[in-house]
Amino acid sequence: MARCGPKPVSLRTRFTNKLIVRRLDECWAWDGAKSDHGYGQVRGPAPEYILHYAHRLAARYFLGVNPGKLDVLHHCDNPECCNPTHLFLGTARDNILDAYAKGRMVAPAVARARKEAV
After folding, report:
1. H-type helices in the chain, by residue range?
2. Which domains does the chain have, with CATH numbers?
């Protein structure tokens, strides 16, 4: 029996169709849906329609690694960036330490002191 409707599109095709590839020293922008925190998102094909983060797919497809339980961190601190040269793997602890080092997160005691000063 012939299949009706459009041919299913693979996750890799869905991912690459929304990626704006630039030079290696530039961020590769995501031109699709984004999370509330600015991370690119793409849904996998039917029947599961699993939601994937674009930068994690970039690590999988371009770096050849399956991040598994590891975080995929950005050297560039641009959540929508999918440039594999801007990505690296780390633990949740590595991610927090990276955020502290780059000034994106403050220690809880510092945050409390800032609130009390207001």
Report:
1. 11-17, 54-62, 92-101, 108-117
2. 11-117 (3.90.75.20)
